[in-house]
Amino acid sequence: MKSRNRPLPEPELRAILRAADEIIAQGGRTLLSKILKGSKDRKLLELKLDRNPSYGFYRDLSLEQITAKVDHMIRTGFLETKMLGELPVIVFSPRGWMVERERRAEELLREWDYWLENNLTPSSMEYLKERNRGMIFLFLYKILCTGNKKYIPYLAIWERTDSKKVQAEIRNVIEALQQRDGMDDDQWGRLLQERSKTLLPGSKDPIILACRKCGDPFLFDDKNPGYYTSDGLCFPDQCVNCQEDARRHL
Ligand SMILES: [Zn+2]
Fold first, then answer.
1. Which residues surround ligand 1, an ion (CB under 5 A)?
2. For each of the chain's 250 residues, which pLDDT tens digit applies?
3. CA of 249 to the centre of ligand 1 (A)
4. First CA to last CA across the chain, in angstroms?
5. 153 C-beta neighbours (distance < 10 Å), count
Protein backbone atom coordinates (compact mmCIF):
# COMPACT_ATOMS: atom_id res chain seq x y z
CA MET A 1 0.00 0.00 0.00
CA LYS A 2 1.33 3.43 -0.86
CA SER A 3 2.10 5.53 2.20
CA ARG A 4 -0.15 8.36 1.03
CA ASN A 5 -3.06 5.96 1.41
CA ARG A 6 -2.05 4.60 4.79
CA PRO A 7 -4.10 5.88 7.75
CA LEU A 8 -2.42 8.17 10.29
CA PRO A 9 -1.04 6.49 13.44
CA GLU A 10 -3.83 5.57 15.86
CA PRO A 11 -3.27 8.36 18.49
CA GLU A 12 -3.37 11.07 15.80
CA LEU A 13 -6.32 9.49 14.07
CA ARG A 14 -8.32 9.37 17.31
CA ALA A 15 -7.39 12.92 18.31
CA ILE A 16 -8.58 14.30 14.98
CA LEU A 17 -11.86 12.35 15.13
CA ARG A 18 -12.46 13.56 18.70
CA ALA A 19 -11.97 17.17 17.63
CA ALA A 20 -14.19 16.68 14.58
CA ASP A 21 -16.97 15.22 16.74
CA GLU A 22 -17.58 18.64 18.29
CA ILE A 23 -18.18 20.47 14.99
CA ILE A 24 -19.60 17.68 12.85
CA ALA A 25 -21.77 18.99 9.99
CA GLN A 26 -21.22 22.51 11.34
CA GLY A 27 -17.57 23.45 10.81
CA GLY A 28 -15.07 23.00 8.03
CA ARG A 29 -11.44 21.94 7.68
CA THR A 30 -10.09 25.26 8.90
CA LEU A 31 -12.04 25.27 12.15
CA LEU A 32 -11.05 21.65 12.76
CA SER A 33 -7.38 22.49 12.18
CA LYS A 34 -7.65 25.45 14.56
CA ILE A 35 -9.00 23.26 17.37
CA LEU A 36 -6.08 20.88 16.90
CA LYS A 37 -3.68 23.82 16.84
CA GLY A 38 -5.11 25.22 20.10
CA SER A 39 -5.98 28.52 18.43
CA LYS A 40 -7.27 31.48 20.45
CA ASP A 41 -9.56 32.46 17.59
CA ARG A 42 -12.59 34.34 18.94
CA LYS A 43 -15.20 32.20 17.19
CA LEU A 44 -13.53 29.06 18.50
CA LEU A 45 -13.52 30.36 22.07
CA GLU A 46 -17.14 31.50 21.81
CA LEU A 47 -18.10 27.96 20.83
CA LYS A 48 -16.10 26.72 23.85
CA LEU A 49 -14.07 24.49 21.57
CA ASP A 50 -11.04 25.05 23.79
CA ARG A 51 -12.67 22.51 26.14
CA ASN A 52 -12.33 19.74 23.61
CA PRO A 53 -9.84 17.04 24.75
CA SER A 54 -8.03 17.40 21.42
CA TYR A 55 -7.65 21.17 21.74
CA GLY A 56 -3.97 21.94 21.08
CA PHE A 57 -3.12 18.33 20.19
CA TYR A 58 -0.92 19.64 17.32
CA ARG A 59 0.27 22.73 19.20
CA ASP A 60 3.75 22.43 17.68
CA LEU A 61 2.67 22.13 14.05
CA SER A 62 1.76 24.98 11.71
CA LEU A 63 -1.85 25.40 10.65
CA GLU A 64 -0.80 24.38 7.17
CA GLN A 65 0.75 21.12 8.40
CA ILE A 66 -2.36 20.38 10.48
CA THR A 67 -4.66 20.98 7.52
CA ALA A 68 -2.55 18.48 5.56
CA LYS A 69 -3.25 15.92 8.33
CA VAL A 70 -6.97 16.66 8.12
CA ASP A 71 -6.86 16.24 4.35
CA HIS A 72 -5.06 12.94 4.85
CA MET A 73 -7.95 11.82 7.06
CA ILE A 74 -10.34 12.68 4.23
CA ARG A 75 -8.19 10.89 1.64
CA THR A 76 -7.91 7.74 3.75
CA GLY A 77 -11.67 7.60 4.30
CA PHE A 78 -12.20 8.61 7.96
CA LEU A 79 -13.71 12.02 7.33
CA GLU A 80 -15.71 13.47 4.48
CA THR A 81 -16.94 16.91 3.54
CA LYS A 82 -20.41 17.85 2.46
CA MET A 83 -21.89 21.15 1.41
CA LEU A 84 -23.92 23.11 3.93
CA GLY A 85 -25.30 25.87 1.77
CA GLU A 86 -22.17 27.40 0.29
CA LEU A 87 -19.77 25.97 2.85
CA PRO A 88 -18.09 22.58 2.89
CA VAL A 89 -18.40 21.10 6.38
CA ILE A 90 -16.72 18.07 7.93
CA VAL A 91 -18.72 14.87 8.47
CA PHE A 92 -17.69 11.38 9.59
CA SER A 93 -17.36 8.59 7.07
CA PRO A 94 -19.01 5.34 8.30
CA ARG A 95 -15.57 4.04 9.27
CA GLY A 96 -14.55 7.28 11.01
CA TRP A 97 -17.77 7.29 13.03
CA MET A 98 -17.24 3.65 14.07
CA VAL A 99 -13.86 4.51 15.54
CA GLU A 100 -15.12 7.67 17.23
CA ARG A 101 -18.30 6.03 18.54
CA GLU A 102 -16.26 3.30 20.20
CA ARG A 103 -13.96 5.87 21.83
CA ARG A 104 -16.90 7.95 23.09
CA ALA A 105 -18.56 4.88 24.61
CA GLU A 106 -15.27 3.97 26.31
CA GLU A 107 -14.93 7.56 27.56
CA LEU A 108 -18.37 7.30 29.22
CA LEU A 109 -17.42 4.03 30.88
CA ARG A 110 -14.16 5.46 32.24
CA GLU A 111 -16.05 8.45 33.60
CA TRP A 112 -18.36 6.10 35.52
CA ASP A 113 -15.32 4.24 36.84
CA TYR A 114 -13.86 7.52 38.02
CA TRP A 115 -17.08 8.51 39.79
CA LEU A 116 -17.32 5.08 41.44
CA GLU A 117 -13.74 5.25 42.69
CA ASN A 118 -14.47 8.64 44.19
CA ASN A 119 -17.84 7.65 45.67
CA LEU A 120 -19.73 10.15 43.60
CA THR A 121 -23.39 9.51 42.88
CA PRO A 122 -24.87 11.69 40.16
CA SER A 123 -28.41 12.76 41.00
CA SER A 124 -29.45 12.29 37.39
CA MET A 125 -28.13 10.82 34.15
CA GLU A 126 -29.79 13.53 32.11
CA TYR A 127 -26.54 14.04 30.16
CA LEU A 128 -26.96 10.63 28.52
CA LYS A 129 -30.29 11.57 26.97
CA GLU A 130 -30.55 12.49 23.30
CA ARG A 131 -27.09 11.13 22.58
CA ASN A 132 -26.46 9.04 19.52
CA ARG A 133 -28.39 5.78 20.00
CA GLY A 134 -25.71 3.55 18.49
CA MET A 135 -23.10 5.01 20.83
CA ILE A 136 -25.36 4.65 23.87
CA PHE A 137 -26.07 1.00 23.05
CA LEU A 138 -22.37 0.34 22.66
CA PHE A 139 -21.82 1.95 26.08
CA LEU A 140 -24.41 -0.43 27.53
CA TYR A 141 -22.71 -3.35 25.84
CA LYS A 142 -19.38 -2.37 27.35
CA ILE A 143 -20.95 -2.18 30.81
CA LEU A 144 -22.48 -5.60 30.28
CA CYS A 145 -19.15 -7.11 29.18
CA THR A 146 -17.51 -6.11 32.47
CA GLY A 147 -19.97 -8.44 34.27
CA ASN A 148 -19.55 -6.09 37.22
CA LYS A 149 -22.48 -5.35 39.54
CA LYS A 150 -20.96 -2.06 40.73
CA TYR A 151 -22.63 -0.28 37.79
CA ILE A 152 -26.17 -1.29 38.77
CA PRO A 153 -26.91 1.77 40.98
CA TYR A 154 -25.90 4.11 38.14
CA LEU A 155 -27.93 2.11 35.63
CA ALA A 156 -30.94 2.38 37.93
CA ILE A 157 -30.61 6.18 38.02
CA TRP A 158 -30.21 6.31 34.27
CA GLU A 159 -33.23 4.08 33.69
CA ARG A 160 -35.47 6.74 35.24
CA THR A 161 -34.67 9.36 32.63
CA ASP A 162 -34.26 7.79 29.22
CA SER A 163 -36.66 6.84 26.42
CA LYS A 164 -38.65 3.58 26.50
CA LYS A 165 -36.37 1.77 24.08
CA VAL A 166 -33.21 2.64 26.00
CA GLN A 167 -34.95 1.91 29.33
CA ALA A 168 -35.74 -1.61 28.18
CA GLU A 169 -32.10 -2.22 27.26
CA ILE A 170 -30.89 -0.76 30.57
CA ARG A 171 -33.20 -3.15 32.42
CA ASN A 172 -31.83 -6.09 30.40
CA VAL A 173 -28.29 -5.15 31.35
CA ILE A 174 -29.18 -4.75 35.06
CA GLU A 175 -30.88 -8.13 35.03
CA ALA A 176 -27.92 -9.79 33.30
CA LEU A 177 -25.41 -8.31 35.77
CA GLN A 178 -27.53 -9.58 38.65
CA GLN A 179 -27.48 -13.07 37.16
CA ARG A 180 -23.75 -13.12 36.39
CA ASP A 181 -22.65 -14.82 39.63
CA GLY A 182 -25.03 -17.72 39.10
CA MET A 183 -23.77 -18.44 35.58
CA ASP A 184 -20.77 -20.36 34.33
CA ASP A 185 -18.57 -18.84 31.62
CA ASP A 186 -20.33 -20.67 28.79
CA GLN A 187 -23.75 -19.44 29.85
CA TRP A 188 -22.40 -15.92 30.28
CA GLY A 189 -20.75 -16.06 26.85
CA ARG A 190 -24.06 -17.07 25.27
CA LEU A 191 -25.86 -14.25 27.05
CA LEU A 192 -23.31 -11.71 25.80
CA GLN A 193 -23.70 -13.06 22.29
CA GLU A 194 -27.46 -12.76 22.56
CA ARG A 195 -27.38 -9.16 23.86
CA SER A 196 -24.83 -8.13 21.26
CA LYS A 197 -27.48 -8.66 18.59
CA THR A 198 -29.41 -5.63 19.83
CA LEU A 199 -26.66 -3.60 21.47
CA LEU A 200 -23.97 -3.64 18.82
CA PRO A 201 -24.92 -1.01 16.32
CA GLY A 202 -24.62 -2.17 12.76
CA SER A 203 -23.48 0.51 10.39
CA LYS A 204 -26.03 1.67 7.83
CA ASP A 205 -23.36 1.79 5.17
CA PRO A 206 -21.09 -1.19 4.68
CA ILE A 207 -17.47 -0.65 5.64
CA ILE A 208 -15.05 -1.98 3.07
CA LEU A 209 -11.44 -2.60 4.02
CA ALA A 210 -8.54 -3.58 1.79
CA CYS A 211 -6.73 -6.82 2.60
CA ARG A 212 -3.12 -6.14 3.50
CA LYS A 213 -2.02 -9.42 1.93
CA CYS A 214 -3.88 -9.88 -1.33
CA GLY A 215 -5.19 -6.34 -1.70
CA ASP A 216 -8.77 -7.46 -2.29
CA PRO A 217 -11.57 -5.43 -0.72
CA PHE A 218 -13.55 -7.16 2.01
CA LEU A 219 -16.54 -6.30 4.17
CA PHE A 220 -15.89 -5.39 7.81
CA ASP A 221 -18.33 -7.21 10.10
CA ASP A 222 -19.17 -4.47 12.61
CA LYS A 223 -21.49 -6.79 14.55
CA ASN A 224 -18.63 -9.04 15.62
CA PRO A 225 -18.22 -8.42 19.40
CA GLY A 226 -14.59 -9.54 19.24
CA TYR A 227 -13.60 -6.32 17.48
CA TYR A 228 -14.72 -4.06 20.35
CA THR A 229 -11.97 -3.90 22.95
CA SER A 230 -11.27 -1.42 25.75
CA ASP A 231 -8.21 -0.35 23.75
CA GLY A 232 -10.37 0.62 20.81
CA LEU A 233 -11.99 -0.88 17.80
CA CYS A 234 -9.70 -3.33 16.08
CA PHE A 235 -10.05 -3.73 12.35
CA PRO A 236 -8.88 -7.01 10.83
CA ASP A 237 -6.12 -6.36 8.30
CA GLN A 238 -6.68 -9.45 6.17
CA CYS A 239 -9.64 -10.86 4.29
CA VAL A 240 -11.19 -14.16 5.44
CA ASN A 241 -9.43 -16.13 2.66
CA CYS A 242 -5.99 -14.89 3.63
CA GLN A 243 -6.73 -15.45 7.32
CA GLU A 244 -7.69 -19.08 6.61
CA ASP A 245 -4.67 -19.47 4.39
CA ALA A 246 -2.41 -18.26 7.18
CA ARG A 247 -4.07 -20.67 9.64
CA ARG A 248 -3.57 -23.63 7.30
CA HIS A 249 0.15 -22.88 6.99
CA LEU A 250 0.76 -22.63 10.71
ZN1 LIG B 1 -6.73 -11.29 1.28
1. 211, 213-214, 239, 242
2. 455 678 899 999 999 999 999 999 999 999 999 999 999 999 999 999 999 999 999 999 999 999 999 999 999 999 999 999 999 999 999 999 999 999 999 999 999 999 999 999 998 999 999 899 999 999 999 999 999 999 999 999 999 988 999 999 999 999 999 999 999 999 999 999 999 989 987 777 888 888 989 989 898 888 888 888 888 888 888 998 998 988 888 7
3. 15
4. 25
5. 12
**From ligand 1's centre to the CA of 243, what distance in Å?**
7
CA of 225 to the centre of ligand 1 (A): 22
Q: What own/partner pairs with CB < 8 Å and gap ≥ 24 does 57-65 have?
A: 57/12, 57/15, 57/16, 57/19, 61/37, 63/33, 63/34, 63/37, 63/39
Residues constituting the chain: 250
Instruction: Look up the pTM and report it.
Output: 0.88
Q: Rounded to the nearest whole angstrom, what is the distance from the C-alpha of residue 234 to the centroid of ligand 1?
A: 17
Domains of the chain (ranges; CATH) run 3-92 (1.10.10.10), 97-199 (no CATH), 208-248 (no CATH)
